[in-house]
Design goal:
75% helix; 375 residues; two-stranded antiparallel ribbon; 12 helices; mainly alpha
């Protein structure tokens, strides 16, 4: 199969996902790619996730300690590790889809293809910069608050690190504390952009499928004239294009449905915990964190809504064409195309829902429910 160099789009998101170990390096064998990711996931669970879990348990045993931040990071680490694994397992299928979206041999390049993808590349870079800035700022605040953290803590924990961890050794030793802070920060830099980069890739692919749909609609509007034979040939061409677009959407859904389910299941809990942290402690770094999660789920839901709306608009374009100039058999085939277009294309979140703006509102409501529960 062709490699990354044959995909002229999605280059920024693929590069940033490489930095998160979720996309293979150039000419890297699949077995080494999966081994590298598996080793990182195991190290993550054996160090960060377990340490956060122990810190939560000891905080509950001590009593009177707000565990909102701990819960948010615990859920975040589990979500990111699962998304990394699920995404990596579909990486080869996703690359094949990207290659097909860049193949214009049969139907030509969609209008505005280059300008739209250039704009998407800019937003991918902007989101990456936000992720890095958020991680650096969050860690700097924790380092500045080291004296206050050591005075107020009730159980042993790392002060200065981005995440509060429990350690079986003295966390205040100078060298040990510095190594912990550096280790956690490097792990955070690898993982902090996972959900946003995966979500923005959902938007990128949705928009590229929309470009194909817009091209199909333009073809339909100019499909019919007084030449019955030529009209029949052009409609067959449109039907084949529609079938290809449906195939792209189904493959797209297969690549992302499980990862989006994990995203959906986690985002409400994480946002609720961060909202509680903001209300009680008025922490600016928590605001940066929650904006990252809200932006991530919004971008993916926007991509899903874009795909649904554009796919159902094919029926309007077909009805707006000069179908009345076609023969009866051609009209019947056009009716079948209209009927299929009334069933929207979508990206599912497992077996329960689809990515859309209504789902985004539901997740925000769920986060408020978590906030009231924690209070």
């Amino acid at each position: 199969m062709a490699g990354d160099e044959d995909v002229p789009i999605f280059s920024s998101s693929r590069f940033f996902l490489q930095l998160s170990l979720m996309w293979p390096l150039k000419n890297e064998q699949p077995k080494w790619f999966y081994l590298r990711l598996a080793v990182f996931a195991v190290l993550l669970y054996l160090t960060i996730t377990l340490s956060i879990g122990v810190h939560i348990v000891k905080s509950l045993q001590e009593g009177g300690i707000d565990i909102s931040e701990d819960l948010a990071f615990f859920a975040t680490s589990i979500c990111l590790a699962l998304m990394m694994i699920l995404y990596a397992l579909k990486q080869r299928d996703l690359l094949a889809l990207m290659l097909d979206l860049c193949n214009f041999a049969q139907f030509g390049k969609p209008p505005q293809f280059d300008s739209v993808n250039k704009t998407l590349e800019f937003w991918v870079k902007f989101i990456f910069a936000y992720c890095i800035f958020g991680a650096v700022f969050y860690n700097l605040v924790k380092i500045i608050e080291i004296p206050q953290c050591r005075r107020s803590r009730k159980i042993p924990g790392t002060c200065g690190s981005l995440i509060q961890l429990w350690t079986p050794f003295d966390p205040d030793d100078g060298v040990t504390a510095s190594l912990i802070v550096l280790y956690v920060f490097l792990i955070a830099l690898i993982m902090v952009k996972v959900t946003l980069m995966v979500s923005v890739q959902v938007l990128e692919i949705s928009w590229n499928i929309k470009l194909r749909i817009d091209q199909l609609k333009s073809m339909l509007l100019g499909c019919f004239d007084d030449d019955v034979v030529a009209s029949r040939r052009r409609l067959n061409h449109c039907i084949q294009y529609h079938i290809d677009i449906i195939s792209y959407s189904e493959r797209f859904n297969e690549c992302f449905t499980n990862g989006m389910f994990v995203h959906l299941a986690t985002t409400g809990l994480v946002c609720g915990c961060l909202e509680n942290q903001i209300v009680k402690e008025h922490q600016l770094e928590a605001i940066l964190h929650i904006f990252g999660w809200i932006g991530s789920i919004f971008v993916s839901c926007l991509g899903g809504q874009l795909l649904m709306d554009s796919s159902t608009s094919i029926a309007d374009a077909a009805y707006g064409s000069k179908w009345y100039q076609a023969d009866v058999r051609t009209r019947k085939d056009l009716i079948l195309m209209i009927l299929r277009s009334q069933k929207p294309l979508f990206v599912a979140t497992g077996p329960f829902n689809v990515m859309c703006l209504a789902l985004f509102v539901s997740i925000m409501k769920m986060s408020y429910s978590v906030l009231t529960l924690l209070n």
